[in-house]
Design goal:
This protein is mainly alpha-helical and about 100 residues long. The protein has one domain. About 55% of the residues lie in helices and about 5% in strands. A two-stranded antiparallel sheet has the order 1-2. The longest helix is centred in the middle third of the chain and has 13 residues. The N terminus is likely disordered.
Length: about 100
């Protein structure tokens, strides 16, 4: 129960984001264009959760971040991309990314 409260406080706009790693205070704010491109690709490609997690992992790796594949799959499954704003996506990525 306490874990869920912590998740809600860290990610109020994103339901059930795994809280395995706390958001890194050093994570960059991705550009609006980069987030838009990622979101569009996730929406348009009709990927399953494994493929979407790989795409997101590659996006993060391109910026020097890593992420647990299981956390990424849960993130993708729990975010309704069509209603997720860019700020929502940024917050969700902060919740799963770690500096490599």
């Amino acid at each position: 129960m306490n874990d869920q409260v912590a998740i809600d406080r860290v990610h109020p706009d994103v339901p059930d984001v795994p809280a395995a790693l706390p958001p890194s205070p050093q994570i960059e704010k991705f550009s609006e264009a980069e987030l838009t491109n990622l979101r569009t690709e996730l929406l348009r490609s009709q990927l399953d959760s494994w493929q979407a997690a790989d795409l997101t992992a590659n996006f993060l790796a391109g910026h020097g971040y890593g992420a647990n594949a299981e956390n990424l799959r849960a993130l993708i499954a729990n975010i309704e991309m069509s209603r997720c704003t860019l700020d929502c996506l940024q917050t969700a990525l902060e919740g799963v990314a770690y500096i490599q």
